[in-house]
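Q: Here's a chain of 268 amino acids. Please give me its 3D structure as tokens.
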Amino acid sequence: MRNRAAMREGSFRHRGAELVYDDAGEGPVAVYAHGGFVSQAAEDRMGLFSWTPVLEAGRRLVRYDARGHGRSTGDPVDSDYTYQSHAGDLLALLDHLGISQPVAAMGASMGCGSVLHAAVRAPDRFSRLVLLIPPTAWTTREAHARAARESAEAVEREGRDAWLATRAQPRPAVVADVPELPPTPAEGLLPAVLRGLAMSDLPSLPEVAALRRPTLVLGWLGDPGHPLSTAETLVHVLPHAELHVSETRADIRTWGDRIAEYLSRPRP
């Protein structure tokens, strides 16, 4: 997906965890936060789209493994895995890198929550936002939270493998052929990660409406965990937002090019 020789791996400690990131390219910074249960490497294996266009557009791309995911460590503390906590890690990463200029921030699913909370907390640190498959939020959130709490109990009671065996459910048709990978958090962390997600929600609508950063929202169809209603509400509430919805796997493959083009536009 990227030229591995050009990639610079780094890590830093924040609130008791070692957070690992990859840093590639030169130019204005674009930082990316991945979704829940995966990691940078897992997303690359899934092959949803390529980040190469973003690098070729002259961006410095920083991607990191969220606390307790992939190569990053974590503790079994529920509150460490809320969107708000992940937002704090994202801001700490920018501090660690010594980035003083506003950056473009991109996030998928859980990472979308991280980015939005970070932008609400420190709007001047961001120039643009790209929100990929926004998760269940607000009125649609409770059913998802309840399922996450029940899953945490199942992992503790029966173990991760047994939980995974009963977790299988139809996947959205638009990504039905994407490889399904096991969660990257260790079994001992998984209940806390699940409960942290259950405790999470996107910022309130008034907080979102106060964000005046240009925003691209990318969604797909038929996914109850990432309902189009969330994406549409965000675009309706955010002052400067646009939405693109993919109905096919082939169209999702264009997301790297769409993001690169969006980040290259002149500021409105």
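Q: Can you summarize the key feature?
A: Confidence is low (pLDDT under 50) at residues 1-5.
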